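pasting input
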Amino acid sequence: MRHDHLITSKQLSRADIETVLDRAAEIDADPEAVAGKYAGTLLGLLFFEPSTRTKMSFETAMKRLGGDVVDMGSIESSSVKKGETLADTVRVIEGYADALVLRHPRQGAPKMASEYVDVPLVNAGDGAGHHPTQTLLDLYTIRENAGLDDLTIGIMGDLKYGRTVHSLAYALTNFDAQQHFVSPESLQLPREVVYDLHQEGATVREHDDLDDVLSTLDVLYVTRIQRERFPDEDEYQKVAGQYQIDLETLEAASDDLTVMHPLPRVDEIAPDVDETDSASYFEQAHNGVPVRMALLDLLLGDSA
Amino acid sequence: MSDSNANDHKLRVSKIRDGTVIDHIRGGQALNVLAILGIDGSRGEEVSVGMNVPSDRLARKDIVKVEGRELSQDEVDVLSLIAPDATINIVRDYEVEAKHRVERPDVVEGVLECPNADCITATDEPVTSRFEVLEDGVRCDYCGTIVRENIADLIRE
Ligand SMILES: [Zn+2]
């Protein structure tokens, strides 16, 4: 990859994506080959927002490559609490680490931070903005299960606030993928995202009923609709109920359907779906490690 | 189209000796143009403003004349966002030295403020705002927010 930093999935070309996914597949097949490759290399973890899962996944990836992590810890105990700017924090921590992983509640924070550091910086989520490593592991999971070309995918749930959805939809424009967006009207894709998809030549097909497209799908990507997006409990129950799936829902789907979810789930996918061949969300979560190992390898290696 | 004499007559705005005439501003935008240029008359500049005057090219146009001031490229860039049809005449010793149509830049830096309260540029961080110029608006380079209307409202104080 020609990039020093990974800030958004928009910066990734099809070739970039394939480079990461191919490397991830190699690592997945033979993790021993890279087990000690980055001994003595340190990854700096800067999480300005709690995210145990993503943080653990990066930590696991770095340690499986033979390296280690240095963790800023919670913001309560750090200099940030004393009013230090992010620009100062990253410039200090870059002196301790060979690469940085940043999660921050403000949109654009990783982009700004990357302008201040020389070591590679990876965005691990910036508010409602981007989460490109999630996108890469999503793409990896789709490729393993259904292939990225000649793909029909349904993306369902909270499409307005779900950053994983925005990044994924954008990245899929690099492939021959038909995308269907299934959501209540109030949670449709934001106009910024629709604009981007149109710029990339994609057709945005919006539906409020999963039944309209379910039988045609290779992949169904489910996201959580959050209670706080609705004015009252009744309204939420009424709407959210229409975007939950169970065994009965899947009767109308192809037997080869792959069901994905960025996790954690609440009740969008009934537990009885877990036992089907369609359920791929735990595999998806596990894929975070080889994909992040591949990414770190490409960012830290000299082969750039 | 040599409309300068006719317009001067219609406008009854005096000729300037050295400075800039911004012509063909969309009707009603003259005060925003002055705001962008940071001109409020407090520094004693001689400024003439004509608003909603009839025009061949636009139904109604505004015109601004500023004595003793030549616009920088940055200023012209931002001007282009709210006055895409404007022409800029640099006047030296009563003669039009140069006449430019404004060109929309690809990017404007440090001039507009992002309206998204969650944007990193809306903090005390040492970061200069940067907007990509789209066909029909501007887009924050940091958070992706697109603004299509009332761009002049984003001009930094
Ligand atoms: Zn912004």
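fyi Chain A has a mean pLDDT of 93.
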